[in-house]
Amino acid sequence: MPSSLIKDGWFGEDEVMWPGQKMSLKVEEVLYEGRSKFQDVLVFQSATYGRVLVLDGVIQVTEKDEMAYQEMIAHIPLFAHPKPESVLIVGGGDGGVLREVARHGCVRRITMCEIDEHVVEVSKRFLGDVTASSFNDDRLELLFEDAAKFVEGRRSVFDVVIVDSSDPVGPAESLYTSGFYAALRQSLKPGGIICTQGECQWLHLDLIAKVLGDCAMAFPTVDYAFTTIPTYPCGQIGFLICSLSAEPQMLREPKRPVSREMQAALRYYSPDVHRAAFVLPSFAERVVGPLRKNRPRLMPRDRIGYAAVALLSAACTLLLTHRG
């Protein structure tokens, strides 16, 4: 086991953004170790989490729990949109987000902009039956370039943009700037939605608040959700979600039903989980809540209709009883 991150048969993370803690996994076999133009790449077979992809010392994907991240970062924005046809994926070289986007039959074009071609090559080789299973989809245009430069000057092209980035250090640093979010806004069609990796509320509330504030200057609707995933810091990761629509509750309710076929294939996402993802613990809500731009209705539109029918029925009953 040649990796310097593996000692006595155990892999331990090496990450500056959560000092004082790290995730460790028991290693059965190192499958690949190398370096791209941008970062160190490691793949190993773990004892309990299947195959694991590590970039610059940080766990990106494990075979056991990857669906908790991939499904949520993809399906929350995709189902929040009534009919997404053009989707941009930023990053996501392991292929997991692409796999989930490809499940949506209404999507006609998928553009994927990944800066590191080597990550895609390694993922195809070692995660081909896990996450990297949809690179042959004929709707896909795969580009290897800096997404921050790619989106500049593009106007009204995408219905949904999903930013599956690593942490704001190294090759992903340019994806955490106000200029990048402003460019993403310009690239959206009317009613468009972006969803980005939103860090950990246990560790990075200050960073989350800053990015929410930056997005609030560019989008009429800004919200925050999260998912649970054992091998990410503190077992949790968040999503920053923005929309050009100013409709209240725009992002929190699925706009389309999940087919039985798709739901049977999914292992984490469901409409109920979609709604619940926006409910934060009190300590996080105190920080995030004032920065949300998504005024909730007193009652959802469908329930207002039901309530009106119920009130009318009760009034008719009272009237008939009085006449009797």
TrEMBL record:
Keywords: Polyamine biosynthesis, Transferase. InterPro entries: PABS, PABS_CS, SAM-dependent_MTases_sf, Spermi_synthase, Spermidine_synt_N, Spermidine_synt_N_sf. Residues 8-244 form the PABS domain. One of its GO terms (molecular function) is spermidine synthase activity. One of its GO terms (cellular component) is cytosol. The keyword Transferase applies. GO terms for biological process: spermidine biosynthetic process. The keyword Transcription regulation does not apply. CDD domains: AdoMet_MTases. The active site is at residue 164. Pfam families: Spermine_synt_N, Spermine_synth. Belongs to the spermidine/spermine synthase family. PANTHER family: SPERMIDINE SYNTHASE, SPERMIDINE/SPERMINE SYNTHASE. HAMAP family: Spermidine_synth (MF_00198). This is PABS domain-containing protein. It comes from Diacronema lutheri (Unicellular marine alga).
